[in-house]
Specification:
mainly alpha
Length: 101
C-alpha cells in the first residue's frame, strides 16, 4: 500500500493546495477501492480452501494421533475460517444497508 502512495506522491499537480489535496484523496480512494476488491472478492474461494484443510486435518486426526504442530495448525485454520466468515457477514450487512440503532 505504501508503494501506491509513494507512486501517487510523484505525480506533479499544480494549483491551490486544497485542489492538490483533493486530487491526492481521489487517488487514494481509487487505490483503496481496488485493494478492497482484491482482498474481498476471493473470500468464498478462501473459505472453500480452508474448509478442505479442516477436513484433511480431521481425517488425519481420526486415523492417527496428531502432533502438537498439527494441532496448532488445525486451531489456526479454525481461527482463519472464523475470521473469513465474520468478514463475509459484515460485508453482507454493509451491502444490505442495515444500520445499528
Amino acid at each position: 500500500m505504501m508503494r501506491l502512495l509513494k507512486a501517487k506522491n510523484e505525480v506533479v499537480l499544480s494549483g491551490w493546495m486544497s485542489f492538490i489535496f483533493n486530487q491526492k484523496l481521489e487517488f487514494l480512494k481509487k487505490d483503496l477501492k481496488r485493494w478492497n476488491n482484491e482482498v474481498s472478492n476471493d473470500l468464498d474461494a478462501k473459505i472453500c480452501v480452508i474448509s478442505e484443510d479442516i477436513k484433511r486435518l480431521d481425517l488425519k486426526g481420526e486415523t492417527s494421533v496428531l502432533s502438537l504442530d498439527k494441532i496448532y495448525d488445525r486451531s489456526k485454520v479454525f481461527m482463519d475460517t472464523w475470521g473469513f466468515l465474520k468478514c463475509k457477514e459484515s460485508m453482507a450487512i454493509r451491502r444490505s444497508g442495515f444500520r445499528k440503532v
